[in-house]
Amino acid sequence: MHRVINMTSIGHDPDIISNYKTEIIAELDSYNQENIHDREVNDGVNMEGKPTLGISLDFNNATEVNNFHNWLKQYITDRSNDFEKARTRVHDCYHAASLNLPCEIGDVWELNIDGS
Predict the structure, then answer these.
(1) How far is the CA of 21 from the CAs of 18, 30, 87, in angstroms?
(2) What angle do CA 77, 82, 83 make, to 5 degrees?
(3) Range of 46's domain?
(4) Long-range Cβ contacts of 40-49 (<8 Å, 24+ apart)
(5) Residue 55: other Cβ atoms inside 10 A
(6) What is the domain count for the chain?
(7) Does residue 8 lie in a domain region?
(8) How far is 18 from 5, CA to CA, in rounded Å?
(9) To 5 degrees, how large is the angle CA 74–CA 78–CA 81?
(10) Which of 1, 11, 34, 107 lies 20 to 30 Å from 64, alpha-carbon distance?
(11) What confidence tens digit (pLDDT) does each residue in 40-67 have?
(12) How far is CA 3 from CA 46, 51, 70, 97, in A?
C-alpha cells in the first residue's frame, strides 16, 4: 500500500511561494528517500494569474507520510498570511501498489483563513 499526499494552494506573492517550494523540498530531502516512491513539488500560476503551490507525494511508509503531513499543515498554518487558500488530502492508494482495491481517503485538511 502507498500513502499519498496531495496539496493545492493559492498564494499572494510568487516570490514567497517559490521560496516555500524550496523549503518544502529541503524538508522532504531530510526523509529516507527509499520510503518516497514519487514526489512532485511545483509552483506556478493559475488561470487568474495568482501564484500556486502544489504537492503530490507517494510514500511507502505510513509513519513518515503522517509525520510529513503534520509538518506540512503546521508549515502552511504558520505562513497563512501568505496564502489565499490551501488544502491537503491524504489517501491510501492500493492500485499504486498493484493491488486491485479502491483508494481510501484519509485526512483532509483545509487552511482556515478567516479564523472561524
Answers:
(1) 5, 15, 15
(2) 70
(3) 2-110
(4) 43/14, 43/17, 43/18, 45/14, 46/10
(5) 21
(6) 1
(7) yes
(8) 20
(9) 135
(10) 11
(11) 999 999 999 999 999 999 998 888 989 9
(12) 27, 27, 14, 10
Q: Per the domain annotation, does 116 fall within a domain?
A: no
Do residues 40 and 53 make contact, with C-beta atoms less than 8 angstroms apart? no
Could you tell me which of 71, 70, 85, 58 has the C-alpha nearest to residue 4? 58
Instruction: Check which CATH number belongs to the domain holding 75 and give it.
Output: 3.30.70.100
What is the model's pTM?
0.88
How far is 25 from 42, CA to CA, in rounded Å?
10
CA quadruple 85, 4, 66, 92: dihedral positive or negative?
positive
Is residue 76, in this structure, part of any structural domain at all? Answer: yes
Q: What is the DSSP letter of 80?
A: G
Ranges of beta strands (E only) in the chain are 2-11, 36-45, 51-59, 83-93, 104-110
What is the C-alpha separation between 83 and 43, in angstroms, rounded?
Answer: 13
pLDDT tens digits for range 78-92: 999 999 999 999 988
